[in-house]
Amino acid sequence: MIVGMITKNTIKRYMVPNTNYWCFILFALMFFSCRQESDKAQKTEAEMELVTSEIITSCSSNPPKRFALVQPVENAASATKTGTSGMVLIPAGTYFMGADTEKARADEFPKHEVKVDGFWMDETEVTNAQFQEFVEATGYITTAERKPDWDEIKNQLPPGTPRPPDSILVASSLVFISPKSQVLLHNVNQWWQWVRGADWRHPEGPGSSIEGKSEYPVVHVSWDDAAAYARWAGKRLPTEAEWEWAARGGLKDNVYPWGNEDVEEGRPKANTWQGRFPDSNTLKDKYAGAAPVKSFPTNDYGLYDMAGNVWEWCADWYHADYYSMSSESANTKNPAGPGGSYDPQEPLVPKRVQRGGSFLCHDSYCSSYRVSARMKSSQDTGLSHSGFRCVKDKKL
Ligand SMILES: [Ca+2]
Ligand SMILES: [Ca+2]
User: Fold this and answer.
1) How many CB atoms lie under 10 A from the CB of residue 220?
2) Which of 241, 330, 374, 389 is a good FRET partner for 312, with 20 to 30 A between their CA atoms?
3) Ligand number with the minimum distance to the CA of 271
4) Domain ranges within the chain, ordered by starting residue
5) pLDDT tier at 153 (50, 70, 90 boundaries)?
6) Better-scored residue on pLDDT, 349 or 112
7) Taking the CA of residue 348 as centre, how many other CA atoms within 13 Å lie in the half-sphere pointing to its CB?
8) 70 alpha carbon to ligand 1 midpoint, in Å?
9) Cα(135) to centroid of ligand 1, in Å?
10) How far does the centroid of ligand 2 lie from the alpha carbon of residue 130, in Å?
């Protein structure tokens, strides 16, 4: 486990959702194990909790595989919804997927031709109201609400690692909390905190709620949660190719959903971070956190928040070299992503694609509100800026 390593990638990644849900648990448990070896004195549960709270701030990468789903998607719900209310029809087309700007990262190259059939797409990110309807209809419990499964965790720990106290194995999620003063940007744990009880109903943890936020995007959703919702809604998650084609809104070789005007120029065009990340936000766009959907103009296809607000899961596995593989293949019609995941930064962790950036993205760092920007996260990870939207085949 790499902790606190200062690299270009770390700095780029500090505002993106690859901080892993399980990193904390594994790190805490390994610490717990070492502690037992070196310190024979018995620790009280309260002392262990204090130690754990300190460890949280050190864990930044190399997430392990997560536990199996308590509710497999196949059993979570069946499609009960029909129609295309709240969706817009995205036309079929051919475009060049990928980037050609200096802001692009290596995995956005090479730019390659892709053909996409027409499809329906949610005009907004899935809202709290929509997700609540799903949960009330199905009883679905999200990843962040589930107690970690020790039987799964221990398989990824050194043999003999003792079971931690139950107080450690509790449902939690990662919440962005702005530090009070300027901080060095190599340590994401200065603004991401593991908060017990944080989930989609309690975005900032216990004491917070979604009351009055029915039209805000749902957050703290894992890929598994998003896929379960989509199945229930009679929809699916977009492929990465569909998502980028839709985000481009019919424009050609555009950097952003609105065109090529710099994100910092003119009127706010999306919910991003303005000022100095992560401690000073000028609120030029009026929102420090998520904004209600439809708060910013649509792109030319009528889609809101394809840049910023919350990250959006795609169906595809993430593979850093997928574009190179695609450009060499004749099969570029409706590409559905690689057969498996590969992230050279964390090769043992299967990851899915996320797109669009969030309210934490700033132009001087990840600028992931660019239409070609790619992000990845293990599919069981959801943070306080992780959301999604769905699509539906045109023929249905
Ligand atoms: Ca903002
Ligand atoms: Ca978005």
Assistant:
1) 27
2) 330
3) 1
4) 8-68+142-196
5) low
6) 112
7) 8
8) 35
9) 28
10) 16
